[in-house]
Design brief:
Elements: E1 2-3, H1 13-24, H2 39-48, H3 50-76, E2 78-84, E3 89-94, H4 108-119, E4 128-132, E5 138-144, H5 147-156, H6 166-177, E6 182-187, E7 203-208, E8 217-226, E9 231-239, E10 245-252, E11 258-266, E12 271-279, E13 284-289, E14 300-304, E15 312-315, H7 320-329, E16 334-337, E17 349-352, H8 357-360, E18 366-368, E19 376-377, E20 382-384, E21 402-403, E22 411-416, E23 419-424, E24 430-432, H9 446-460, E25 464-468, E26 473-475, E27 483-486, E28 492-496, E29 500-502, E30 508-513, E31 518-523, E32 538-540, E33 550-555, H10 557-578
Parallel strand pairs: 3-4, 3-6, 6-7, 15-16, 15-17, 17-18, 18-24, 25-31
Antiparallel strand pairs: 1-2, 2-33, 4-5, 7-32, 8-9, 9-12, 10-11, 10-13, 13-14, 19-21, 20-22, 22-23, 23-24, 26-29, 27-28, 27-30, 30-31
Helix pairs in contact: 1-3, 3-10, 7-9
Amino acid sequence: MGFSQILFSWTAIIPVIVLLYYFFRKKYTDQTVSSTLFWSEIMQETRVSPYLKHLQKNALLYLQLLALLLLVLALMNPYVKKSTIVGAQTIFIVDTSATMLAGKEQSTFDTHKKEMLSLINELDGRPVTLITTGNTPKAILQQETNTKDIEKAIQKLQVTYETAQMNKALDVAQAFVGNTPTSIYVFTDSLDKKQLPMEKDTVKWIVKGSAKDLTNIAITRFAATTDGQSAMALVQLQNDTDQEQDVTLSIENVTGKEIVTESVALLPNEAVTKTFKDLPLEDTMTAKIDAKDDYAVDNSQTVLLQTATSKVVVDQSMHQLIQKGLQTINSSSVKIVPSSQVADIQDATVVTNQTALLEKMDKPIVLFGRDDVKKVEATGEVGTTSDALFAFSELKDIYVSAVYPEFDDYKTIASVGDQPFIQRSPKGDIVVLADIADTDWPLHPSFPLFLWSAEQELSESLGSLGIFTPNEQRAVALAQGDWSIYSQEDEFLSSITNGLLTAPMKPGIYTARSNDEEKRFIVQLQAQERVIEKGTSYTLGELPDNGKEEISKTSFVPWLILMILVLLVLEWEVQRRRGFTN
């Protein structure tokens, strides 16, 4: 706190003058009374409450002195120093992933919204750019200076359940910086300092993370399969707390009826896998736990099952490890067919390396390698995108020595260094651009899981549209007609245009419906959204023009004037009760 007009401190002599006046004024007047009968009674009342009598007698003095002191303070203009946002502009990067819903009294997302609204008061006219995360970061506001519009945009923010992919949002923010001194606020749950681009000296980073004591118990994996007579389910639970947790795991059908239930004890920071066999046939299963944690979104997961077993046909020229891997997954429905006969198969999932079949086959296929081009040497680590195909198979520490050239119009979902490794065609084909002999992939647990995921995804396309991530856009094979998406409560959500389906935002079961046909699909959280990391908050960088935070001065004068007016009213009331003639 400080005073901007300290020279006016001399006015403190005014209350002193008033005080001296009261000291030297006449205290009483000589007056003759006819009797002293009531004198003792009056003195007794005075002795019982001397302070109250003194206050009543001198109330006007104290009110005048207080009013004069406040006037002196107002003339000296007292203020309090307040830090404000530095830089010529401000950028808010808001994490809208599902993990932002974690929290105790309120979610991390709601806490960050309140922080953003409070920061608006510190903008002092600076333009604001608001960016949300996701597979495609969006600039909700660009260089906006209208406070009401900024508040409205912040209030409308909501969680989109997509994985944050913070690097993309940081790149978008960098495009707005240029050479302008900028404060960039990142509202997320956890962000490694190494991810922040520190090349520019004109940026100050302020990272606002989640609370550090959040607990989470999650269903990390849920898979179910059927042979047409019974079903089998596999559930993996993860305890991310430091204490043993007892939870009740249940599997329900589409109507919410429990199929099986079991109590599970989870050791601290441990994962437990439960397998359930001979379950009744259901086309939809949902696994749930009743965990009391700070993140409820990952306490349930849903899968779709096919009542009929789909066939898998493997090209005889495929590596033995591919054949054995698929036979291990589903020995009764896997057939090994000579290469010359593969093209005649139309009612099964085909695994081959014949590139020409990509155009000939009506159904999507799995392509391991290529037979139309030569492979080239590959270097680097294997990296994947957030694709549903890798929900159970994380491609870590895999060595790939050579890959085939990519397909230009296909989407790359895994890479070796800068070279594509796995692609997905617009029709839904899965293409592995490498021969298994050129990798050590079969030595890793992710290989059979990948084969299972690919087989399940392509076989599901017979009766359903498969698994989607929140807001994912994907081309789907649908018959001609008008198709719309409906929720489980039969609420219309959106339309499918030109075969391009945009998945709903919230996880759950949805239906794509036309006039005479319908297909269901699942929107499922990605694996990254089932893990809560320890919250991090910190500040990095300083702006050269400022060196430190800018300081604003909030004056107390308006409040002091209000208090003086109240005191004047009180003085008037005291004088009125005593009588103005006195």
